[in-house]
Design goal:
It comes from Delphinapterus leucas. Belongs to the peptidase C26 family. It is found in: Secreted, Extracellular space. This is Gamma-glutamyl hydrolase. By secondary structure, the chain is of the alpha/beta class. The protein has a single domain (about 30-275), classed as Class I glutamine amidotransferase (GATase) domain (Rossmann fold, 3-Layer(aba) Sandwich), CATH 3.40.50.880. It contains 10 helices and 12 strands. It has helices spanning about 5-10, 45-50, 60-65, 80-90, 105-125, 135-145, 180-185, 200-205, 210-215, 255-270; strands spanning about 35-40, 40, 55, 70-75, 90-95, 130, 150-160, 165, 190-200, 215-220, 225-235, 250. The strands form 4 sheets. It has a 4-stranded parallel beta sheet, sandwiched between helices. A 3-stranded antiparallel beta sheet has the order 7-9-12. A 3-stranded antiparallel beta sheet has the order 8-10-11. Helix 4 crosses helix 5. It is globular, with a radius of gyration of 17 Å. The model is unreliable at about 1-30, about 235-255 and about 270-280 (pLDDT under 50). The structure holds 2-acetamido-2-deoxy-beta-D-glucopyranose (NAG) (2 copies). One 2-acetamido-2-deoxy-beta-D-glucopyranose (NAG) binds near residues 148, 149, 200, 202 and 203.
Length: about 280
């Protein structure tokens, strides 16, 4: 649920020199500020390629930092054991929006490594919050279902309210939102959609793996296809994945909402101080 409206506006300023930023040796998180990894992407745009091989849209970094997190770029060219070390050194990961192949790209490869480690960690009583926005959301649907279930929708550059499919109090994501903000989200076009592909409610409902893993929180429609705009992992995996979709705040429409969502994202990642456990 990142500020994708903002993100898209600043994509031109995207940080492409990221490949040359050496990833300094990770240290175990000790302070209460979570350290969040952001997955990089290969630059495909000719203008961006000149600046570097990989990028992270700067807005994601600013957005996590503005709510008090620290950010670590997750490069695409590390060895498996280096990813394991990184996994143990950070508090969560964000799979950002963008446009790369969901099955055969560096982004897909590294997302899968972190997803598997998160699931394994959960099995061992640990948890590693994973947030997917836009492309990241789509990647998580692929990782969980093992299939490409997306369908083309007419959803590029459209602002819509959210259709809440369950009471906001029943979701971890929305339960602490102020009532007036929820009402605004439900009736005003505050979320910006910039995606060609969507997970339809129909395909979600027909897929046992997705149904077993996620609760749908909000949906939208492009006029003919009802698709999922927000979902989160269900209870038994509640600390593994908190996934939001391609419905995102338009920061100019409502800065308060955007700020609130930044904070919610970081709260997902913030370790509980007492006992060193995570809280959401
Ligand atoms: C369901 O998924 C298939 C791919 O497995 C896709 O071709 C189709 O368009 C999707 N249908 C809907 C309604 O989402
Ligand atoms: C919300 O759902 C209703 C009923 O399915 C639909 O008519 C309406 O268009 C949806 N609104 C949005 C913004 O997607």
């Amino acid at each position: 649920m990142a500020s994708l409206g903002l993100l898209l506006r600043v994509l031109g300023l995207v940080l492409c020199g990221a490949a040359s930023l050496g990833l300094s040796a990770p240290t175990a998180p000790t302070s209460k500020e979570p350290i969040i990894g952001i997955l990089m992407q290969t630059c495909h745009n000719e203008n961006m390629k000149i600046l570097g091989k990989y990028y992270i849209a700067a807005s994601y970094v600013k957005y996590l930092e503005s709510a008090g997190a620290r950010v670590v770029p997750v490069r695409l060219d590390l060895k498996d054991e280096e990813y394991e070390k990184l996994f143990k050194s950070i508090n969560g990961i964000l799979f950002p929006g963008g446009s790369v192949d969901l099955m055969n790209s560096g982004y897909a490869h590294v997302a899968k490594i972190f997803y598997k480690l998160a699931i394994q960690g959960f099995g061992n009583g640990d948890y590693f919050p994973t947030w997917g926005t836009c492309l990241g959301f789509e990647e998580l649907t692929y990782l969980v279902s093992g299939e490409s279930l997306l369908t083309l929708t007419d959803t590029v550059g459209i602002k819509m309210p959210l259709n809440f499919t369950r009471g906001p109090l029943q979701s971890r994501m929305f339960q602490n939102f102020p009532a007036d903000l929820l009402l605004s989200l439900a009736i005003e076009p505050l979320t910006a959609n910039f995606h060609k592909w969507s997970l339809s409610v129909k395909n979600f409902t027909m897929n046992e793996k997705l149904k077993a893993f996620f609760n749908i929180l909000t949906t939208n429609t492009d006029g003919s296809i009802e698709f999922i705009s927000t979902m989160e992992a269900i209870l038994q995996l509640k600390y593994v994945l908190q996934t939001t979709a391609k419905s995102v705040t338009d920061i100019q429409e409502n800065t308060f909402l955007s700020k609130y969502i930044d904070e919610v994202t970081v709260r997902v990642f913030r370790p509980q101080i007492a006992g060193g456990k995570w809280s959401i």
